[in-house]
């Protein structure tokens, strides 16, 4: 009898990718995906630990799901960064949980679920095994025909920013071998994918084993991807400023398929705060880097991440963040109030008062929204190639993406999904564009 699987994914794109791969691994064991937890035999939560009260939110979700276990045979599995961080603690606190599995052990999930059923005992695997989990996880289900796909090329982080849990939950930086990535990319393209986003917590630190026995950087990997026939667009995320090497910057100049969009978090604009954050770069260093990237690709759209209210941040420090934002000009950005993550170096420090954090966040977001609206408005009247991705809200409407990752609403047929249309931009809102076929 087929068992039903319900998956809920929190957090970043890497989790989205991981969830799909776990889904395929379980599909191979006879699981069919369902959209509702109520009729699932296995409920999988793929969790994120990056921000505020992540673990508490998972525990309260588990509290709600517990009732569903009244039906015989129902299992709950928790994956992702909260699973990794909590480990055995989660089994102790939430007895309804049958499996706790960390991000490097996903290929073992079907066996863990089976073992839990057979023995009636909860299973825990938060190891960092030697083998590459992706060798044992089948590719995304063949039925999915989305034209844009993610491909994890690198995981983990060795940077240890003082606020961040990633080096602890995802472990040290590991890059996947080039040949395997090319094989996976060709498979995706054969299934109709025309845009691939290379994923990694620190993607531009990629240093995978090349087919020639040397280590390849991300720039070189992108050049090889550009040689795949039928792959029209390449993106990558997320990057650290210190890993933007010359070759990667040159790729932005030379590789037509590499889209003019770069998510390059800086976090703060004050050197004092950057130092306390252990970012290992200065504000001026970041601005110089942006200049070099813009020299290579003048129309590049920039995106970033910002933290306000890091311990010790003064009003004057915060104004330097605003100044850096004004000087850079972002097309898009994410900003957060600092929240202490247990086990990270900054967690114990004296906190900036909550109302100051809230005030700074509101001021920063007002500036970033203004920049985003201006960037969108600047596209009015332009002709942009738009990749048609999915149906829009109204009949006859589809949503696509501009090269700058803006959502573009246009009239098109569902059959045109996956095509890149020339679109004249006729409308610009704060979060999206509208256009018509040129
Ligand atoms: N508090 C607030 N924001 C954080 N981020 C990471 N850790 C924290 C934290 N403790 C933000 C950073 C990072 C993004 C993914 O999440 O800006 O770039
Ligand atoms: Fe976290 Fe990114 Fe810093 Fe690594 S580089 S510690 S993932 S914020």
UniProtKB/TrEMBL annotation:
Residues 143-374 form the Radical SAM core domain. Keywords: 4Fe-4S, Cytoplasm, Iron, Iron-sulfur, Metal-binding, S-adenosyl-L-methionine, Transferase, tRNA processing. Its cofactor is [4Fe-4S] cluster. [4Fe-4S] cluster 2 binds at residues 157, 161, 164. It catalyses: N(6)-dimethylallyladenosine(37) in tRNA + (sulfur carrier)-SH + AH2 + 2 S-adenosyl-L-methionine = 2-methylsulfanyl-N(6)-dimethylallyladenosine(37) in tRNA + (sulfur carrier)-H + 5'-deoxyadenosine + L-methionine + A + S-adenosyl-L-homocysteine + 2 H(+). Pfam families: Radical_SAM (PF04055), TRAM (PF01938), UPF0004 (PF00919). Binds 2 [4Fe-4S] clusters. One cluster is coordinated with 3 cysteines and an exchangeable S-adenosyl-L-methionine. It comes from the Bacteria. Transmembrane segments: none annotated. The keyword GTP-binding does not apply. Residues 377-438 form the TRAM domain. The keyword Lyase does not apply. Its EC number is 2.8.4.3. It is found in: Cytoplasm. Residues 3-118 form the MTTase N-terminal domain. [4Fe-4S] cluster 1 binds at residues 12, 48, 81. Monomer. Catalyzes the methylthiolation of N6-(dimethylallyl)adenosine (i(6)A), leading to the formation of 2-methylthio-N6-(dimethylallyl)adenosine (ms(2)i(6)A) at position 37 in tRNAs that read codons beginning with uridine. Belongs to the methylthiotransferase family. MiaB subfamily. PANTHER family: CDK5 REGULATORY SUBUNIT-ASSOCIATED PROTEIN 1, MITOCHONDRIAL TRNA METHYLTHIOTRANSFERASE CDK5RAP1. This is tRNA-2-methylthio-N(6)-dimethylallyladenosine synthase. It comes from Paralimibaculum aggregatum.
